[in-house]
Structures are given as C-alpha cells and as structure tokens.
Amino acid sequence: MLKTQVKTFSELTLQELYGILQLRSEVFVVEQDCVYQDVDGKDEKALHVLGIKNNQIIAYTRLFKRGDYFEYASIGRVVVSKKERAFKYGYDMMKVSVEAIETHFKEKKIKISAQAYLKTFYRNCGFTEVGEEYLEDGIPHIAMIRE
User: Fold this and answer.
1) pLDDT for 49-71, tens place per residue?
2) What pTM was computed for the model?
3) Does 3.30.870.10 match the CATH number of domain 3-107?
C-alpha cells in the first residue's frame, strides 16, 4: 500500500530529502545512464509529493505553480523505484499531484516535459502532446498539457 504526503521544501526532514535525492539519482542518473545536474536549485520553490511504502520513499514528484517553471503549473521529476513499477504507483502519484496542484495552487492547466517513451502513460493521466519531440539531457521528450 502506497502512502502519499505533500510537503514544501522546508517541511521535508533531512532523511526525506536524502531519500528523494537518492531515488532521483538511482533512476534518472544511474538507471537511465544520463549525466545531468539533478540538484538544480528549483527544489526550494517546489511542492514535493512523496510516495512511501515500508517507510521508504519509492515514488516522487515535484510540483511548481504557474510561472515558476513553465507558463502553467507543472509536474516534474516523476519517478517510481524500478522494483516497485509493477504496482502502477505512477498513476497514484500523478492523481495526487494533479489534486495537489488544484488544491494548493488553484490551477487546472498543467504542463509537463515528458520523456517521449512515456507518452501513453501521461495520456492515460489526461495529458495531450503539444508540439514536436525535443532532446532534454540527451533523452527524447515532448511537452504535454492537461486542461
């Protein structure tokens, strides 16, 4: 069973922050073999959605209000630990993330920069592709919007 929490940067404990950074590094840097600057100075502005199972952070997203990252509210760093993906927790995390944006930011329109191979997943979460694919950190991405 996945438990979720939504926190500001200042509400995160050191242990939670370490768990978030460890998970993001495990997936985005090591698993995807992509050297990039994950600690980008944007975490302080974000709302953080933690997916917790057996006292471990196994899923995560970060949320931005309109204007902080894109012209619309946004969801980024969507990640589920490889060993937990079979449980489809990504859908739970996106549902909680969309609800948190609506509750905390009073926004409906959300823009994401999605890894292109996950288009179907994001379509299933209510997003639609806009524009052409582009490279971000050497990985094909596409902008997607949910209205």
Assistant:
1) 999 999 999 999 999 999 998 89
2) 0.94
3) no
